[in-house]
Design brief:
With 134 residues, the protein is an alpha+beta fold. It contains four helices and six strands; from the N terminus they run ββααβββαβα.
Amino acid sequence: MSILYNKVERGNPRDVSAPKKWYATLKRVRLVREKEMAKLIADETTMDPKEVEMSLSRFQQILIRLLLDSHSVQLGDWGSFYLTCNSAGADTKAEVAAGSIKNLNVRFAPGKELTDALKHATFTPVETLLSPAE
């Protein structure tokens, strides 16, 4: 397993006269959809893919309901889902109301297991996969 990345040259938007620099940007190979995820989970368990799909669907509905009821949801060492918001500032406490909230954001805070796994990630530049073999 390796995380793919591209090398991209970018200028500084705050200082257009500054020299451009090179940055690594992650490359997504493809999007894995729910049905394929269910099949992958089913292949490693005794569950049928349809049972996994139903479980994922229920998980999504319950997660949404809990978040909208002001709960955060922790999934063991995997991590936690929670909401944050952006709101308009007000001069006084009395002026802050629900209408001040401009948008909600779903956040995910990785837990120990995922954080530890990320520490051991390896990276491969995409260009090495596209180069002809020597």
